[in-house]
Every structure is written in C-alpha cells, then in structure tokens.
Amino acid sequence: MKKEISKEKKNGKGERGKLLVKFLYGSKRFFLTSIIASIIVAVTDTVNPQIIRYTVDTVLGNKKSGLPKYANDLVSSIGGVDFLRKNLWTLAIAVMVVATAAAIFRYIQRMSNAKASQTLVERMRNLLFDHIQTLPFSWHMKNQTGDVIQRCTSDVETVKNFLSEQLIGIMQIVLQVGLSLTMMYSMHVKLSVVATLTLPVILIYSALLGKKIGQGFKKCDEAESALSAATQENLTGVRVVRSFGREKHEIDKFAKLNKSYLTSWLKLSRLTSMFWGLGDLFSGMQVMLIVILGVNFCVNDGMTSGELIAFISYNAMLSWPIRRLGRMISEMSKAGISLERLSYILDSESETDREGASEPDLRGDIVFDNVSFGYDNCPELLHNISFTAKAGSTVGIIGGTGSGKSTLMHLLGRLYDLPDDGSGGRITINGTDIKDIKAKHIRKNVGTVLQEPYLFSRTLAENIAITKDAVNMEEVREAAAIACLDETVMSFSDGYDTFVGEKGVTLSGGQKQRAAIARMLTQNAPIMIFDDSLSAVDAETDAKIRNALSTNLGDSTVFIISHRTATIMNADLIIVLDHGRIAEMGDHNTLMQKEDGIYKKIYTIQMSDPDGNEEVTA
Amino acid sequence: MSREKKKDQQYTHLPYFGIPKLITYLKPYRGKLLTMLVLGIVGSIIDISIPLFQQYAIDNFVIANTLKGLPMFIGLYIVALGIQVASNTRTMYLASYVEMNIGHDIKKVCFNHLQTLSFSYFNQNSVGYIHSRVMSDTARIGELVSWVLMDSIWNLAYMVGAIVVMFSIDAKLALCVLAVMPIAALLIALCLNKLTVLNRSVRELNSKISGDYNEAIVGAKTIKTLVVEDKISSEFKQDTLKMKRTSVSVTRFRVLLWSSVSFFSFIALALVLWRGGILTQEQAFKVGKLSAFMSYAQGLLNPLLWVIDAISTLVNTRVNIERVTKLLETKSDVTDTPEVIEKYGDTFYPKKENWEPIHGDIAFENVSFTYPDGDEQVLENFSLNIPMGTRVAIVGETGAGKSTLVNLVCRLYEPTEGRVLVDGRDLRERSQLWMHSNIGYVLQAPHLFSGSVRENLRYGKPDATDEEMWEALRTVSADKVVERMDKGLDSEVGEGGDLLSTGEKQLISFARAIIGEPRVLILDEATSSVDTMTEQIIQKALTKVTKGRTSFIIAHRLSTVRDADVIIVVKDGKIVEQGTHKELMRLKGYYNSLYTRQYEKEAIQGII
C-alpha cells in the first residue's frame, strides 16, 4: 500500500503525458479530422471578405483587381469583369458557395470534435470503471466513495475540456488570427501593424480578467454550497428543528447565508460587468482606430474602399477569438491537477493472480493451516487458526462481535490475502494453496451471503439472477422458494419485477437477506458461506430456510456463521471463536459434553426461557 | 387511486406561463428593471448605429476623398462608444442584480414557508426534491426575469431598429432580406426544441452514470463475491455509449443551429450583394450604404436566435414557477387557531409571558389516527394515561411505525379523532412552539448542525451558559468527549457532525436534549447506532435523566426497556400488545418472540 502513495508523488510530467496518450486511444482520428476541418474553415472564412472587396473595388468601382493570377484567369475565362458587372448574381452565388463550404466544414469540424471528446470521455469513464472493478477490496475500504465518484465525473470533465476545448480551441484561434492577419498584411501593411499591436493588450487584459473572474466564481460557489448545505441540513434535520421549536433560529441562519450568497454574487457581477465593459471599450476603440486610420489611408495612401470594408471584416475576426484565448489560458492549469487525481485511481495496483494460478475443481477438503491475519496496519485479528472442513460437510461458526468470524470467511473468498511470505499460514482447498488458484475462480465457487447484503438497483428477478447471463424465471423462483422469499415476492404488486434500490421499494433487512440467499443459490457453488445471513429473520423462518437448504445443498461444503446455536447445532463441525482464537471445536455432542464449555453455556441460555430466572423470583 | 390524483394536481398548468405569480416578487425591483430595459434599448440603438459610422466614413471621406469633418466624426464615434459601453455595463450589472435578488427573495420565502409546513409534507417529498425547489427552481426564475427578459428586449430592439434602418435605406432590398427570416426562425425553433429534449436526457444519463459508480464502489464486496465484474462493466459501457451518442446528438443540433444561422446570414448577404450591387451600379446607392446594409442583413440572424431561445426558456421555466407556487401554496396539516396565536404567539414571534408551565401528565383519549398520506388507520380508539414521571417504551421491528405515538405527543401530527391531553388540556389549545419547547428529543441518527459544540447545545436552550452546558454534558457523560476536542465547547463538529463518531454525536445530542430541562423526553432508538461501550454510558445516563420526567423510549434493543412502566408493542404500524415486561413475556406473543431472538445474541456477548 505504501508503494501506491510514493508512486503518486513520483508521477511527473512524463507519466501524465503517457496517461493522456492512453486516454486518447480511439479518439485521435476524430481529433485529427477536427483539426483539418478547422483549418479549412479558417481558410474559407477569409474568402468572403475578399469577394466583397473585389465586388466593391473592381466590379462596382474601377480599380485594379489585386487578386492573385489564378483568380484573374478564372474571371477572364467566364467573360471578364464586364460579365460580372452585368451579372452580379454570379458574385452572390460565389458568396453562397463559399458560405456553404464553410458551413459544411464547420459542421464536420464541430461534429468530429464532439465525437472525439465524447469518445475520449467514454474511454476515460470505462477505463476508470473497469479499473475500479479490478482493485482489491482493501482499496475500496480505504477510499471514500464520494471522493472516487468526484474523480470519475468532474475530473474526467476537466480533462475533456482541456483537450477538446482548450487545446483545440487555442489551435483554431491561432490559425484564424494568423490567416486574418495574413490577409490584412497583404492588403495594407501599416494598418495591419496597428491592428497587430493592439492584440497583446486585449490578450493580457482578458487573461487577467479570466483569472480574477475565476476567483470570484470560486467564492460564489463556496457561498452557494454553504447555503445549499444549510438547506440540506434543515431538511434532513426537520425533526430536530421542530421538536426543539427552533424554526426562528433556522430562518435567521438561512437568511444570513442567503444574504452572503447574494452579496458575493453582486460583488462578482460588479467586477464582471466592469471588466467586460472595459473589454468592450478596448475592442470598440480598436475598431474605431482601424476605421479612422483606414479612412486616412484611403484618402492619403491609396487604400481602396473595398479594401477598407474587407479590412474591417478581418479585424472583426481578431478581437473576439483573442478575448476567448485570454480566458482559456487562465483556465488551463486545472487540467494538470485533474490528470493527477485520475492517475491516482488508474495507478493503484489491481488484484493479480500468482503466475501459474490455476482453475482446479474445488470439491474437496478445505484446510486452514495455522492462519493468522490482521488488516493493514492493524493489530492481528486472527491467531493460529487451524481446522479442516471435510468436503460436503457443514461447519458452524459462533462467536462474539469482533471475534474474527467474517474475516475468516473473507480470507477463504480471497477478499483479503494472507501474506505472501507464508508468515500467516495458509489455506488449501483439495490440497492446493488458494493463492495458487485464480481469485475469480475461487469466488465463483464460493457462494457468499454477506451479513449486510447489497442489492443492485434493478428488479428483484434481475438481482436474483445476476450471476446468470439471462433471467430464467423458473430458476429464480426455485431459488427464492428455498430462501422462503417466493411467497413474499408474490404478494408485491409487481412481483419479481419489483424494482429494488434507491428509486424502488425499500425491502426490510430480512427480505434483503433472503434475496441475497436466493441470489447465491443460483450460483450452484460447491462451497457456500452464510455470514450471519439470517440475523434479521425470525426463528421460525430461519428454521424453514435451513430445512429447505439442507435438502437442496447437495454435496456442497457449507460454512454458517450465526449467533443462534439452533442454527448451527446440526453442523458436522462447530467452531467457537473467541477474540480471534479457536476456543472450542467439535460437533454439537462433543461440545455439549464439555463442562463449563462456552458453547454449552450459550446453548443452555438460548434454549432456556429467557425470562426464566425472573419468573422464579417473581 | 389517491396517488394518481396527486399526480394530476401536480401538473395543473398556470396561465400565462405562471408570470402573474411572480409579480409580487418583481415589484420591489420595478425601478431597476425599467432602467435595465431602457438602457438595453439604448445599447441596441447604439449597436445599430455603429455600422452607420462606418458607412459615413466610407461615403463621406473615402469616396469623397477628403478628411474634412473627421475630428467631428471621431468625437461622435467616441461619444457613441462611451454610451454603448456605459449602458452595457450598467445593464449587465442590473440584470445580475435583479436575478440574484429575486432568487434571494424567493428562496427566503420558500425556506420560511417550509419551516411552517407539517410533517406529512416532508414524508411525502424527498429531501432532494424539496432541496431543488428551494435552490434550483428559484435560481431559474431569477434568471428568467432578468437575463432572459433583457436578452429578448435587447435583441428585439436590435431587430426592429435594424429593420427600420434597412427600410429607410431601401425598402425593396429590406423586404428581400426579411423574406429569409421566417424559414430561419422555423429551423431555429425546431433545433432548440430538440435540444431541450436531448439536454434533459443528458442530465438523466449523467446521474445514471454517477449512480453506476456509486453502485460499483459501495457494492464492491458483493460484486467481488458474486464475480459479476464483467456483467456490471458491460452494463456500464452501455450507459457510457448511450451518453456518448446523446452528447454527440446534442452537438449535432447545436451545430445545425449555429451553422443554419450563419448560413442564412450569408444568404442575406448574398442577396444584398446582388440586388444592392445593381443599385450601386445604377448610382442609386453609395458604396458605404451597401456596406452598412450588408452588416445589418448579416447581423439580423443572431438576435433572432436569441429571441427564440428566450421564448423557449420562458416555456420551460413555467414548470419551475409551477413547482415553487405549489410549494408555497401547500398548507400545513397542523396549524394553531387564531385564538391560540393571539394568546401564545406563533412560531416566529412567541409570547412566552403567556405560556403556562408544564407538569408532564399526558393522556391519549380515544385517539384514532391515519397518516395524511396513508389509507390505513394505524390507531383506533386508543386511550392511555401517562402520569408525570412515567417511562413509556415503544418496541417493534425497524420500520414498524413506532414513532406514531411520539409524533402525536410532539404534535407533529394531529389525531384524526379523539384528543391528546397535556396536563388535562387538549394540545390544540396551546401553540405548537409551547409543546416543542418543553420536549427533549434524541434521535436514532443523531443529527448535529455544522458549527461548534456550543451552537449545537444552544439548540436545546438558546441562552444556556457554559456551566449549564458542562452540567448537561456531565449528566450524560459527554464531558470527556468535549474535553478531548481541541477547542472545548468551541470545537467544530463538521457538516452533520461528521468530525465526530456516531457515538460521540449521540452523546452530544443527548446533552442537547436535556439542557433545556424539558418535562417530556423522547429517545428515538437513541442507542441503536452506537457501540456497546457508548450504549452502556447512555443507559446509565438514561436512568438518571428520566427520573422526574415523562419519557418515551423507542427502543431497538429490548433489554434496555425491561423496567419501563409500560411497554407498547408495535407491528406493521399498529399497536399489538401493551403492558409491563413481565405481563408481555407471559403472553407468549409477539413481544416474547422478539425478546427471545435478541436474547440469543446477547447471550453470546455475555459469555465471550
């Protein structure tokens, strides 16, 4: 585990680049198309002002064409300027053709950019999801759900924006500005120099603006989440508020936060409107400067009116992109942080099987050989556990809270592994060390019903048949019948199509446990673990389920963890765990013969009338 | 049946997009709104005049080949620019001002109204649902009456102005350009409509994907033991694929929208170039005019887009207005009569001088009760006398409806029939706040508010002194918890008390409940989520604090309530058995079986 942390620190620029390359798999060609299309768009955008200039100067006026030779040849081939003068519609058509071409390539560019960025997001999400699935269980225990989800959603979004909007956007802007400037320089150098000189001012100004506004937005976000949290608290704590009669207090608190949210927004608005206004003023002045100087050049320096009109059009293509560029630059720094946060997940080590791990038949004796175990950095929880579960037998485990019952079973299902150096002993199935068996193979063959089972948000039938490729209703109902769930389900109005989970019904603890048992039964596993999985059902149902199970378990090896002696008394082997050690072991009869034995005590108390003593004294 | 009826009520449409409902909130800002609109129109007039400057420059300087009058021209240009920037800046600020203030006002009204609503409202509507009424609906309404309004006025003004100028230059040419507009408008409207639908499904898919992640992480243990990683992954991939497709569609329509706008602008431009060019050739037109005309023709399409967008926002915001209106028009099931308010004051302005002291005798008198959102009668003709100092225990399985009696005592609900008496008088004869001020409540999930320990304790007694706080903490053995914290009473507990363990939270919420010396104490499964150590501490404190008080103990672990004066056993919402522990054990009924089941578990804890 320590390795992971040091790895995250070492993660330098090179690693980040590598990660980007990994993410970009499959979306590169779309990005490439998008870039090429955007070049064509930028080029076509520069053509129309030229047509207009030509129309104004040469066709309507009487000035030299100023067009490159091939364009002049084209004009003379269709009949020269005179033809155009008589047929102005041809120029209109030319404008339309160029506009259509620009529209088509703009469409291609935007669409391929969307495809690129969405493919990228899809790939990132899938990579993350798949990787999270392969991470060992200990990783899940260590990391907070909310944090991981945040990384998988908003950080993914940030990286996408960086690639599809910022990187591509900057490229487009540079191209557009470059082309516009080229056209401008080709028409009038002096005026172009003036226009160029104003650009850095706009750029720096908007970059600063972007940064400042970004900070303001952050403050507003904070104020908003404080307000939102207060509302949330008030709503979830409505019982407390009411029963203490503190509505007035809540209203005052909310009013204060609401006010501070308002003020921080107004502050930001004042800032943004001022900055925007100034920005508008800059751009407006710049246009004015160009117009006035342009007029001057027209009068004194031989610039044509068509050129001026075109020049003004090109100049208009400069100011906005430059303002956007400024803001983008100020936002780019976020992407690096997000990439690092994503690499934390993707660089966490997945579960791996030992080299040469096999998939043997798991019908056979299960041997715990001197097993000792403690979780990461925690004191040892299990001490020197040794026992043999004969193939096809039933093992009952009983013990107090924290005695290590569940941990013992987690080890068998390889949710946690014993240390590689063998210092924690070993567990074998049919003579093979379980670490030499593929983890998934073991889990497929060890059906586990957890103490607090998790049901997925889908229908009951789909939940029960989740290990199957398709839902087979007969199978589902059969399993549910054994788990004493069928009748209950049939009483629901939607039966097996009842939707479970957040947006569906909430099942009671006992119903959940029984659904989990049914789900496990469809696995037909040779080894089964019931981890205190009947704790929420009453004694009667418990007995019914056990009866049904015993006739259906076949030759499976079964582990039953319970705090109810009645549940495990028929087991072939009963293990009494006390603080991680085996205190007693044997079948019911052997254990009952032990004077002062723990099992005997528990059994006697549980079988007696719980209130017997008091009855006597009363 | 009843559920369907509720749904119908939810979707009654308000006339005029619900705008009349907003007038009250707009009133305080009418001056600002008016200024905003006027300045918006000024701004758009200047926007329209800017191309005229360029036209003037070309026609009068370039074509005439003179610089006469240039200083005057520059002066006017600067003045125009100045006015434009000033009015734009002010308009933006005003729009934002109105937006945020109206959002603020409606949020406040909603929140305040929520504080008076009865419990049935909170049971019928999820926290998330109510939360987004207060936070997001109000924000969208604010946006509608400011930005959307301003945008549409500004753009309409621009369009009208541009069309007027175009007609004044040349009517025929202007008609040519206008002919393009209806087709463009239709296309824009279609795309916007489609986009609204698509954006909604993107939002839904987004929350589905977050949900998928949540399932994969929270359910990790189950997924691993069932070995269904591949299945879960492949299902996730279907969601991300759907997301990709929908997002690409969104872009498709967005691009279609924008490129049709720019395409139609170019059609307009081409028309002007052709027809206008002919006019220029006939010397009826100056080049500058042609250039200005081209600017207008091209500039007309963007405002059209914004106006249509504003209309579609108006249509879509109707839902938000309806939801907020519905919230504000919901009436509380539990209200004090005018006479009671007259005497005892209301929730926000209590007249404490008129409050009688409470003794603590409680009686249920032929009480029948049906939850407002339920059909089944959960109490039928129930009578129980609870003299001061009685310990009442209410037991049953989780979700069996153990809180009903307590809800009635707290007057969070009122009986459908019969009366609940406190000190011999009907609860309805006193104000809600009177009763609430005399109750100490400890919840199963201890709910602390973010803030310091002191602030949380003051929840139980607003004017509590430090000594009183320490006294209360000592009584429930929570003093050690607070001493351990770095700033004592001033230590932050975090959002929802998250900086503390559940046990610590429970102890502090216990202290909060008793600090006001309430005559009635309610412990709602107060020990079900704490560890054994804390439970023992709480148990000890419990014996101390219930002395001399009427107490209701809703219990999960039955061993804790064996010595209660009366135990009420609840199953499926209804009271099935009632009596002392011994009587109930002798009955060999439901209580007996519940008790036996728990006893098994505790037997082990006792031995190992």
Account of the 3D structure:
The complex is a heterodimer of chains A (618) and B (608). With 618 residues, chain A is an alpha/beta fold. Chain A folds into three domains: 1-188 and 333-351, ABC transporter transmembrane region fold (Up-down Bundle), CATH 1.20.1560; 189-302; 366-617, P-loop containing nucleotide triphosphate hydrolases (Rossmann fold, 3-Layer(aba) Sandwich). Chain A has helices at 2-10, 13-24, 28-45, 47-60, 69-77, 80-86, 88-134, 137-142, 145-187, 189-236, 238-243, 247-300, 305-331, 333-347, 405-412, 439-445, 460-464, 473-482, 486-491, 509-521, 539-552, 565-568, 588-593, 598-607, 612-617; strands at 366-373, 382-389, 394-399, 426-429, 432-433, 446-449, 527-531, 557-561, 573-578, 581-586. In chain A, the strands form two sheets. Chain A has a six-stranded mixed sheet with strand order 6-7-8-3-9-10, sandwiched between helices. Chain A has a four-stranded antiparallel sheet with strand order 2-1-4-5, with helices on one face. Chain A is elongated. The relative contact order of chain A is 0.08. Chain B is an alpha/beta fold and 608 residues long. Chain B folds into four domains: 11-169 and 313-331, ABC transporter transmembrane region fold, CATH 1.20.1560.10; 171-284; 342-438 and 528-607, P-loop containing nucleotide triphosphate hydrolases (Rossmann fold, 3-Layer(aba) Sandwich); 452-517, no CATH class. Chain B is built from 21 helices and ten strands. In chain B, strands 6-7-8-3-9-10 form a six-stranded mixed sheet. In chain B, strands 2-1-4-5 form a four-stranded antiparallel sheet. In chain B, strand 4 (417-422) and strand 5 (425-426) form a beta hairpin. Chains A and B meet through helix 4, helix 7, helix 9, helix 10 and helix 11 of A and helix 3, helix 4, helix 6, helix 7 and helix 8 of B.
